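Table S2 (text version). Query chain:
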Amino acid sequence: MACCYPIALKLENRNCLVVGGGAVAERKVLSLLRSGAKVKLVSREVTPRLHRLIAEGRICWRQGEYRPADLAGVFLAIGATSCPETNRRLARDCRERNLLVNVVDDPENCTFYVPAVVTRGSFQIAVSTGGKSPLLARKIREELEKRYGPEYGELTELLGRIREKARREIEDGHARQELLAGLVDEQVLKLVQKGLWAEAKERVINNVRPCRRGQSPDGAR
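Corresponding structure-token output:
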């Protein structure tokens, strides 16, 4: 069997469908909302938390059974019901329409798998077993969460600001790449691993070479 092709999907303002209203569906809905997706929920009943999201207008809910018309305008769908037949119908309908679909606990009917993810702002580490062992992926994620704290999110944001400023101010592509390649050295990573964020940030900024305007890409003169 071929390996999966790992990607990171941009779901902001994309229409996504979740079929199911229980605890698993709730987790899927919350994950999609964190990604900026527009979520439509179809189920007969919903959890109290999902009901609050509906009342707040954060998700749309059609009370009832899944039907193919629910896929109109949808980019991605997730089947999270307790009825295997409903989940399989959803998967079949999505495949016929070339839509991305994930069915919880049913790898054979998925066109994508949801990895276990460590999230620190824009910094993310995803662990996938290709649907074979979600438990193993979760255990590894838990280990990674202990190692990679919020400081990695801060480092990512700092590097992102420097990169954007360098793209605006340094026209020479080779010079820009040379600058960016020198931002994070072994010492920076060691400082971050020790939780010494202020020192790590200072070293990153000191690694920035002056831009043509006499200002570092981070804005420090």
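Notes on Table S2: The CA atoms of residues 179 and 189 lie 17 Å apart. The beta strands are 15-19, 38-43, 60-63, 76-79, 100-103, 116-120, 123-127.
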